[in-house]
Amino acid sequence: MQRKNLSGLVVSLILIAGITMYFAPSALPSILQVSASSHTISLVANYPNWNNSNPQISVTQGDTVTISLSRTDAYTHQFLVDFDNDGAGDTGDCGTTDQCSGLFTTAPPPVGPFTVNSNPATYTYYCTVHSLYMKGNFVVQSATATPDFGVTSNPTSLTISQGASGTTAVTLNSLNGFAGTVNLSATVSPSGPQASLNPASISLSTGGSGSSTLTVSTSSSGYYSTPVAQGSYTVNVVASSGSQSHSTSVMLTVGSTSSPTGNSSLPVVPIVGGIIGAIVVVGVAVFLLRRKS
Ligand SMILES: [Cu+2]
Predict the structure, then answer these.
(1) Ligand 1 centroid to 46 CA: how many Å?
(2) 293 Cβ contact partners less than 8 Å away, ≥ 6 residues apart
(3) How far is the CA of 19 from the centre of ligand 1 (A)?
(4) How far is the CA of 50 from the centre of ligand 1 (A)?
(5) How do the domains of the chain map onto residue ranges?
(6) Per residue of the chain (293 residues), what is the pLDDT tens digit?
(7) Which CATH superfamily is domain 148-257 in?
(8) What distance in Å separates the CA atoms of residue 65 and residue 58, rounded to the nearest whole number?
(9) How many angstroms separate the alpha carbon of residue 65 from the centre of ligand 1?
(10) What is the CATH number that goes with domain 38-141?
(11) Does the pTM exceed 0.85?
């Protein structure tokens, strides 16, 4: 009886281990593929094009590439990838910098496999014989694109009257496979209006996006219930995750919608206006008093 239980336990453990190994890979977070891969690219020469369209070839730095060649027309061709950007005419660096076939009529041996060592950029591949027409882009992409995120707001400006509030949507986007939590904060300059974000933190999945609502309020505050001054403000929204941070600005105009929306600091205008008004009042009073006496 004891032995039967033991064998049952062993069978159960093997089953659990098997199921775990089967399901574990799908439970792992998806990670951006950055390891080098191998590509075989087939190009058919058919004057005046490769593959009838001179297709763009895209690879990643560090990839291993093999190019198999053939033709369907009656001409002689020669394939060349111009990694040093000196044109189709220089075949002297074939096999060192550039990658080339020989002149061919029937399908030649494939070019490569070769490792793409050139810096990320757009290069050109040619037929050296028909270089004006038979050419296309050979794009080398970076293998080390850093996962990152972007932040935008819509709308990018708000106009609200004193004592009111307004909202704008702040959107976060995952870039280059970024996945993680991004914290949002907002500051207003000059101080006065209050800004808040809901939610203040967004979890982005790889290739995903998320949105938060930025609410800006100009209700009066403080002991004397001082109203927020009319004028132009900037709300700076900072999105940060670890050491990475990005920001976006929302222009805020406080006042009636018909008031000017220039960049000048409007609080100066009422102050200057008030001072001028006071001088005029005092001046008129002095004039009247002198006239009376
Ligand atoms: Cu050709």
Answers:
(1) 8
(2) none
(3) 56
(4) 8
(5) 38-141, 148-257
(6) 445 554 554 445 444 444 444 444 433 333 444 567 898 999 999 999 999 999 989 898 999 999 999 999 999 999 999 999 999 999 999 999 999 999 999 999 999 999 999 999 999 999 999 999 999 999 998 887 788 899 999 999 999 998 899 999 999 998 877 899 999 999 999 999 999 999 999 999 988 899 999 999 998 766 667 788 999 999 999 999 999 999 999 999 998 644 444 444 445 555 555 555 566 666 666 666 677 65
(7) Immunoglobulins (2.60.40.10)
(8) 11
(9) 21
(10) 2.60.40.420
(11) no
